[in-house]
Design a protein that fits this description.
The chain has 13 helices and twelve strands. By secondary structure, the protein is an alpha/beta fold. It has two domains: 198 residues, Isopropylmalate Dehydrogenase; 138 residues, 3-Layer(aba) Sandwich (Isopropylmalate Dehydrogenase), CATH 3.40.718. A hairpin with a 5-residue loop joins β11 and β12. α9 packs across α10. The radius of gyration is 20 Å and the shape is globular. The two termini are 18 Å apart.
Length: 340
């Protein structure tokens, strides 16, 4: 199937959160925003009820196959049915919805791996709700990697946050801050650098990206005076990456990496832990940031925000990050197919 004939596979997310809201709003903006066709793997009844609550007139059409979505897209929001058990209470997550949340993600992965969809775009999930049902993964990123892994082969997913202002990659992700020094290794950092460089070429057309690596400690350790991680772990990984021909610099003090002049000197900032990367990113790109998973055998993007249960059904949810995630997923898949 030609790339242009394949829709994006958009997952349900937590149906009690703002996923239905932003899906409806993104679809409503399709003509003025030139949004690529997508098919939602979700429950048409949930969308209909949420559209009513928001006062939106959005026609919704169930499809039996993802291939039907592009032709329908200009007239109705295509939905490939994944039924949600029980009653969805807007803003109040419940365990009954968890099977549908997981099935939506799994079917989206299946569609893209079968060539029926061009990329996976995920609506926000509530990790706390999933954990209550025995969900064994820290988050979306790790779950997608497990679904995509071939038997006997473990993938290494890399989370990147992307916007026109900044791209960042945290080396350690959803772990307690106290555990970061223990988890941070030269091998992990080198692998993260390599995957980032490779996929920036594959999906963004940056064949020799400039990667700036932060330190872990204040002032990048002050030559060992404030910690030795920069000397013992980070610098050796940078040297190894440079030895492989990659354009990598650092370790840089994190507090001087994100002003305008510094950002002009690199394409991606690789940081040692979650907030070191996401605090500057969300300061600069809170509304239009996109979560991208590198290191998978397919394109995956997501809005860079959570379920926002307090905003669900109020009309206050901003669809901008989902719109940008849909556009970026299409652009990345174009690059991967050599169409960009």
């Amino acid at each position: 199937m030609a790339l242009a004939d394949r829709p994006l596979a958009l997952t349900l997310g937590d149906p009690a959160g703002i996923g239905p809201d932003i899906t409806l709003l993104a679809f409503s903006a399709r003509k003025r925003e030139a949004i690529p066709p997508f098919v939602l793997l979700g429950d048409a009844a949930v969308l209909t009820a949420r559209a009513r609550a928001l006062g939106l007139e959005v026609p919704i059409g169930e499809v039996g196959d993802a291939s039907e979505a592009p032709a329908l897209f200009q007239e109705a929001l295509p939905v490939l049915p994944v039924r949600v058990a029980g009653t969805v209470e807007v803003g109040r997550p419940g365990q009954a919805a968890v099977p549908a949340v997981r099935t939506s993600i799994e079917r989206a992965v299946d569609l893209v791996r079968q060539g029926a969809a061009r990329a996976v775009v995920t609506n926000p999930i509530s990790k706390a709700v999933l954990y209550g049902s025995g969900f064994a993964f820290p988050g979306h990123t790790e779950y997608l990697a497990a679904l995509a892994s071939a038997k006997g082969r473990q993938l290494h997913p890399v989370m990147m946050l992307a916007s026109p202002a900044l791209k960042v990659v945290p080396v350690t992700i959803h772990v307690a801050l106290k555990d970061v020094p223990r988890l941070l290794t030269s091998e992990l950092l080198l692998k993260t650098i390599e995957i980032t460089a490779k996929d920036l070429g594959r999906y963004f057309g940056l064949m020799r990206p400039r990667l700036a690596v932060s330190g872990l400690n204040p002032h990048a350790g002050e030559d060992g005076g404030l910690g030795r991680e920069e000397i013992d772990i980070i610098a050796p990984a940078i040297a190894a990456a440079q030895g492989k021909g990659l354009d990598v610099t650092g370790p840089h003090p994190a507090d001087t990496m994100f002003h305008d002049a510094a950002r002009a000197g690199y394409d991606v900032a690789i940081c040692m832990y979650h907030d070191q990367a996401l605090v500057p990113f969300k300061t600069l790109a809170f509304a239009d940031g996109v979560n991208v998973t590198l290191g998978l055998p397919f394109v995956r993007t997501s809005p860079d925000h959570g379920t926002a249960f307090s905003l669900a059904g109020t009309g206050k949810a901003n669809p901008r990050s989902l719109i940008e995630a849909l556009k970026l997923a299409a652009s990345m898949s174009d690059h991967a197919e050599g169409k960009a």
